[in-house]
Amino acid sequence: MAQHFIVIGAGIVGISTALYLQRDGHRVTVIDERGPGEGTSKGNASVLAIESCIPVATPGVAWDVPGYLSDPMGPLAIRWSYLPKIAPWLLRFVAASKPERVEEISIALRSLMVHALGAHKSLAKEAGEPEILRETGWLAIFETDKKFQSYQWDLEIQKRRGVPFQVLPAEEIRQFEPSLQPIIRHAVYYPENAYAANNYRLVTLLAADFARRGGTILKEKVTGFQIGANGPTHVVTVSGRHAADAVVVAGGAWSKGLTQQLGHKVPLDTERGYHVTLPKAGRMPRMPLYSGDHSFAITPLEIGLRLAGTVELGGLEAAPDYRRAEILMKHGRRLFGNLDETGRSDWMGFRPSMPDSLPVISRGVRWPNTYFAFGHGHIGLTLGPLSGRLIADLAVGRDPGLDMRPFRIDRF
Ligand SMILES: Cc1cc2nc3c(=O)[nH]c(=O)nc-3n(C[C@H](O)[C@H](O)[C@H](O)COP(=O)(O)OP(=O)(O)OC[C@H]3O[C@@H](n4cnc5c(N)ncnc54)[C@H](O)[C@@H]3O)c2cc1C
Predict the structure, then answer these.
(1) CA neighbor of 272 nearest in space, from 86, 67, 141, 84
(2) 366 C-alpha to center of ligand 1: Å?
(3) How far, in Å, CA of 45 to CA of 295, rounded?
(4) Cβ 328 vs Cβ 341: under 8 Å
(5) Among 15, 19, 397, 39, CA closest to 252
(6) Closest ligand 1 atom to Cα of 14
C-alpha cells in the first residue's frame, strides 16, 4: 500500500532511499537542514569501493594504534579531550577486530558489495546521466615492501570473498599508471571498482531526478517526532511538523539522537576525514588510486585531482584541523612530483561510523513504521543506492536477496 514516507537526510543514502521508495509508488518527502549532498556526501573520495570487504578494526588494531598516533604523518589522529566520550565505541571497535568477527563482517560486507554497483547504475541511468559513473577499476599502490607484506593478509580475505584482483609485476606499474613517480614497488588492480566523476554532483543529480518525479525536498532541521499509539505520526522541525505514515532516519553522522527518540540506542560515532582538491593539479591518474602505505585515496574528478582520507576521532563539534589535509598534500607531492595548487580547496567531513564497520539498514523494532539507514563509515557513497533499494524492499516486504540480520538496528 502506498504511504507517505519522510526521509530525514539528503545525502547519498537519503536521496537514494527516497528514489527507491518513490519507484514503489510511495509519496516521499526528504527533509534536510542543508541542501542535498551538503553533508559528508559532499567531499568524499568519490570511489565506488566494491572491493571493500574488510572492517576498519582488524586483528591487532589495539597494538597498532599507539604507533599510528605517534606518527605525525600517520593516517590516524585523536582529540584527546574526546577520548572519554568515544571510549565505549572504541571498546566495541576492538571487540569487532577478533579474527572470527572480522570473517563474519567481511562476509556481510561482500554480500552488500556484489549488489552495490548495480543499484548505482540503475539510479544514474534513470537520472539521465549513466556516464557520471566511470568503470575504470582502481589501483592500490605500495611504496614499501613492509606495507605490501602486511597487505597479504587483506588479499587473503579478499580471495576468500571472491574479490577479483590482479597483482601487477613491478616492471609494469609505471606503464599501467604513467602519472606516478617511479617510487611504487607493488600494485594491485581491482577491476570491479568504479568512481563517480563528481560525487557531489551525483547527489544533486539524483535529488533533481527525485524532485522531477514529484518528490518534495524541504530545507528544515528536524528536532524530533510526535509519537502516537503505533509509532511516529509527525516529524517535528524547527519550522513546524509534517504528517507521515512512515519515517526513515538517514541523517549520516547526526543520526544518533533522532534514532534514540525512536526507541533505539546505537553506538554511532564519527571518523572525521579530510580532502584536498586541486582543480589544476597538472597530474591526473587514469583511474582512482589507493595509497596502501598511508591509507588515502586519489581520484581524478571532473573538478580536479582529489586526495582524500585520514581518520580523526574528535566528535561532531570540534573545529577542523587542516594540518590533516596538509599531510595528504605532502604524500601527494611525493607520489606525483610537482602538483599545481592553484585554486586548492581543503575540506573536512564526518564519516558516520559504527564500531563493527557495518551500516545500519533496518526496520525499527520499537515502531514498525520506522526505518534506519546510516552508519556507512568509509563506504557510504558505494552503498548509498543499495541501502535505498534495501529499505524500499523492507518497506513492502519484498525479498531483499541477502541476509539483512548483520545490519539490524538492534544488533548491539
Ligand atoms: C574524507 C572522506 C573520504 C571518503 N571517501 C569515500 C569513498 O571514496 N567512497 C565511499 O563509498 N565513501 C567514502 N566516504 C564515506 C562517505 O562519504 C559517507 O559514508 C557518506 O557520505 C554518508 O552518506 P549519508 O547520506 O549517510 O550522510 P551525509 O551525506 O552526511 O548526509 C546526511 C544528511 O543528513 C542531514 N541531517 C542530519 N541530521 C539532520 C536533522 N536533525 N535535520 C535535518 N537534516 C539532518 C545532514 O544535514 C546531511 O545532509 C568518505 C568519507 C570521508 C570523510
Answers:
(1) 86
(2) 25
(3) 12
(4) no
(5) 39
(6) 25
pLDDT digits (tens, 9 = 90+) for 206-215: 999 999 999 9
Pairwise CA distance, residues 16 & 259, whole Å: 19
Give the three cell numbers for residue 77. Answer: 589522529
Q: In the prediction, which pLDDT does 67 show?
A: 77
Regions of the chain short of the pLDDT cut 70: none
∠ CA 391-394-395, nearest 5°, is 85
In angstroms, the CA 46 to CA 48 distance is 7
Quick one: pLDDT at residue 367?
98
Check residue 192 and report its DSSP letter: T
Q: If you measure from the C-alpha of residue 253 to the centroid of ligand 1, how many angstroms do you get, rounded to a whole number? A: 7
Hey, which of 19, 109, 378, 407 would you mutate to test ligand 1's pocket, going by the most ligand atoms within 8 Å of its Cβ? Answer: 378
CA 353 / ligand 1 centre spacing (Å) = 10
Count Cβ atoms below 10 Å from residue 273 Cβ, excluding itself.
27
CB 201 within 8 A of CB 230: no
Report the alpha-carbon distance of residue 318 to residue 295 in Å, rounded: 23
